[in-house]
Specification:
Layout: E1 4-6, E2 14-16, E3 21-28, H1 38-54, E4 58-64, E5 68-74, H2 82-101, E6 109-117, H3 120-131, H4 133-136, H5 151-157, H6 160-167
Helix pairs in contact: 1-2
């Protein structure tokens, strides 16, 4: 197993294992609600999709919000460390937002946290968590009603047995960085 670890002062350790599944949470600087409307949330979601596709990461679940995001993805076999992936994503998302807002050079993103998921039960519980995060934050009553997460896609594309398995996993006791109060203006 090829494992690479970077340890920066004042930052979480980022472990990279090729062909592994990760959960990632990112936050805006000072929890500012830069992506508070549908236009900006769509921009953020599209940048996430594009960067993951270009870097050959396989997206499994996502939720994007006004001041943070969560996603679960499988890393490629090739050398594509998570720190470079997130740097690319944050840079492009900031560039496009700042272009839209006429605020060139503004710092948008603060930090991200990642966990390599090595147990199936951890993976399934976190899939449920990420897809139901809009409900957790009180933005919608049913996760599939929130257009900027994978819950609706998951309902439409996954087999009933797998959906039932994922939704049976409790996620209220998971330790995931999520101390945010997102807003959403349509």
């Amino acid at each position: 197993m090829d494992t690479k670890m970077k340890n920066w002062p004042h930052a979480p350790v980022h472990l990279f294992v090729p062909q592994s599944v990760y959960i990632v949470t990112g936050a805006t600087l000072y929890k500012v609600h830069w992506y508070k409307d549908s236009k900006r949330l769509e921009l953020l979601e599209n940048v996430l999709f594009d960067i993951l596709r270009r870097r050959r990461w396989e997206l499994r679940a996502w939720s994007v919000f006004s001041n943070h995001y969560h996603f679960i993805a499988k890393s490629p076999e090739v050398d594509s460390p998570i720190d470079r992936l997130i740097q690319h994503f944050h840079s492009e998302a900031s560039r496009q937002l700042n272009l839209l807002d006429g605020a060139a050079g503004r710092t948008v993103w603060y930090q991200y946290w990642d966990t390599c998921l090595t147990f199936e039960k951890s993976y399934l519980a976190r899939l449920n968590y990420v897809m139901n995060n809009p409900v957790h934050h009180g933005l919608v009553k049913v996760a599939s009603q929130y257009p900027f997460c994978s819950a609706g896609w998951f309902e439409r594309t996954q087999r009933p047995a797998f959906r039932k398995t994922v939704t049976s996993f409790k996620c209220d006791r998971l330790k995931i960085q999520d101390e945010f109060e997102p807003v959403w203006e349509e």
